[in-house]
Amino acid sequence: MGGAASIGLLGAALVLTGALFDAEPLYVPGIAFIILAGSAAGWVVAGARGITVSRVVGARRALEDEPVPIDITVRAGPMMVPTGLLEDPLLSAPAPLTPGKRTTRIRINARFTRRGRKLLAGPRVVVRDPFGLASRPGSGKAPDAELLVLPRIEPVRAIPPGGDGAGIAGAGRARPHIAAEVDLDGLRQLRQGTPASRIFWPSLARGAGMMERRLRPESDTRPLVLLDPRGAAVEEDLDAAVRAAASLTVHLARAGGCALLLPGERRPVILEPTLGGWPHAHARLALIEGTMRPSLGALAGRRGPVLYVAARRMHRSPRALANAPGGGRILVVPGELAGRRPSFSVAGCHGYELSGARAAYASMVVA
C-alpha cells in the first residue's frame, strides 16, 4: 500500500502544518488526502478478503511444443472484487480481472520447448483500488503443480542415394534374416520335451547321440538403441540426441520390435509393435541428464543391430560399438560429420553406418 500510505502522510502533514501556522486553507486538501488514502486501503482490504483461486492443468504429461490447456478460476469473497490483476508465470503480462464479477475464468495455452520436469508456480490475485494507490494480494492462491514434458517424436528421413549406406536397420522384413544368422549358439545334450525342430539329427547319424540346437534369446537379435548423453557441447545437442533416441525407438518398435538401453540401466527395455511399455520409457527419456553414463558392457552379448545415439559429435567409432558383434552398427550424432555422408536424419541428428554393407541390415523402409 505504498501509494496510499504516501497520500495519507501527505494529508497528515498538510493538516499538521495548518494547525501549526493557523493556515486554515491547508485543512481541506489535507483531510481530503487522508480520506482518499483510507478509502483506498479499505477498498483493497475488503476486496482481497475471501478470494479463492483454483487452477486445472489439462495434462500431467505433454510433448515438447504441444499446447497444454490451463484453466484458472478466480472467485470473489463477500465483496465483489473491485479491480485487480491475475499474476501467473505463464502469462506474458498480468491479466486484468473484470470489475464487479463474482467469478472470472482465464485459459492459458502453455507450450514448453524443452523436455523435463516443470514446476508450475501457483497463480495469485493482486487487488487494487481504481486509482492505483493501494494493492494487496488476495487471500487465496492456487497450489503449485508439476508437469512432465516429454521429448517429441520426429520422423526418420532417408538421405538420397550416395551416403554410406541405404538406411537404418531393424524393420520386420530385415529382422528374420538377422535372426537366422545369429540365433544358433551351439549344441547340447537333448533335453526331455525339446521340439523335434530343435533336434540336431546329424549328431545321431555320426553316433554322437541325440543333440539339440541351442538358440540365443530372441531379444538379442532385436535392434538396440543405446543413448549416450555425455559430453554435449551445448544443451541443444543433448536434447536433439534424446529426441533422436526416442524417435528411432518408436520407429523400430513399430517396424517389428526393438530394445532401448537407457543410461544407468543394465538391461534394455524391450518394446513390441504395440508399444505397450513405451509410456514408461518415454517418461524416463524426459529426465535424462548429461552426466549419466551408459552401460556399454551390455553391447558385448548383443547379436542384433546396434544404434549408438551420442550427444557429442564423435569422429571415431566408440570402442564398445566397434567391438560389438551385432548384425550392423550405426552411429547417430547431432549435426553432421565432416567428410562423411549420412544414411538418414532424425530430430536434427544424422546416422552413419559403420559396419559395411549387410543386406538384411541395410534394407530398411524409412517412414
Give an account of the 3D structure.
The protein is α+β, with helices and mostly antiparallel strands. It folds into 4 domains: 2-47; 51-149, Immunoglobulin-like; 157-179 and 217-362, no CATH class; 186-215, no CATH class. 25% of the residues lie in helices and 28% in strands. The protein has 8 helices and 21 strands. The strands form 5 sheets. The chain has an 8-stranded mixed beta sheet with strand order 11-20-21-19-18-15-16-17, with helices on one face. A 4-stranded antiparallel beta sheet has the order 5-4-8-9. Helix 1 packs antiparallel against helix 2.
Which characteristics define this entry?
367 residues; alpha+beta; Immunoglobulin-like; 4 domains; eight-stranded mixed sheet; elongated
Largest sheet: 8 strands, mixed
In total, the number of strands is: 21
Domain count: 4
Strand arrangement, major sheet: 11-20-21-19-18-15-16-17
The helicity comes to 25-40%
Instruction: Give the number of helices.
Output: 8
Please indicate the percent range of residues in DSSP E strands (runs of 2 or more). 25-35%
Weakly predicted, low-confidence segments = 162-167, 169-183, 356-367
- Termini distance? 62 Å
Q: Could you tell me the radius of gyration in angstroms?
A: 34 Å
Shape: elongated
Average of the residue pLDDT scores:
78
Instruction: Give the topology string: H per helix, E per strand.
Output: HHEEEEEEEEEEEHEEHEEHEEHEHEEEH
